[in-house]
Amino acid sequence: MGYSKDQLLARLKELQIDFSQYEHPVVLTVEAQAKYVGNVGGALSKNLFLKDKKHRYYVVSALADTKVDMKVLSQRLGLGKGGLRMAPEEVLGEILKVPLGCVTPFALVNESASHVSLLLDKGFKTQERCIFHPLSNDMSISKADKPSSAVQNVKEKSVNGVRPSIPSTDAGKFVEELLDRTSTLLLSEISEDSIKRHGGQLGAEVANNIRKCLREDLKNLATIVKNTAYTEGFYAGTHYQPKRL
């Protein structure tokens, strides 16, 4: 069961993420959405749910006036010219937990979408406010912060309410804290008692314990690096202009 619109809005308020909301009739396109919220001041977006040949999924969010060239984007992501295509409509409900016309970066808050990569147009960084559907296309919300930070905050603090102790927005600091934690774990595992208990197997025992403790942190770091690369590739893809011969 995925998040509902009301649950998402409640979660945003709980996390003290400020936003403005605008109710309107159901809309299926960004052009229809613009008729109701185009005058509130903010950047509208077009949102696509894509997949590649290896059945990896992507939510691509671009500024409304940006042309998304999937062939170029596929090349920039190292997938070849035909590497990306629209995901089947039936998996929208299965993975993103939203119906047709409701694709939004906020859908990644759902646990079922934890493996989906988010590709954001770099142009959002220059926008004062960004407008997205909150999992339902009968409402739009205007967010003053950049969309990636809002989605990340919701994802980090949702489901079980446990927030990672290592910062996910600063890779350098992340690595330093990982090294510090590794050192602390290593020292804590090696004691007179542990040497007596494990003897010649101490090295393997310590390695296994450190692996268990750091697995999630390393996966988090890998996801950050991957999404950063995808986002930069998306920006290059949407702004790439081939030279004319």
TrEMBL record:
InterPro entries: ProX/PRXD1 (IPR040285), YbaK/aa-tRNA-synt-asso_dom_sf (IPR036754), YbaK/aa-tRNA-synth-assoc-dom (IPR007214). It comes from the Eukaryota. GO terms for molecular function: aminoacyl-tRNA deacylase activity. CDD domains: PrdX_deacylase. Pfam families: tRNA_edit. Residues 24-141 form the YbaK/aminoacyl-tRNA synthetase-associated domain. Belongs to the PRORSD1 family. This is YbaK/aminoacyl-tRNA synthetase-associated domain-containing protein. It comes from Gossypium darwinii (Darwin's cotton).
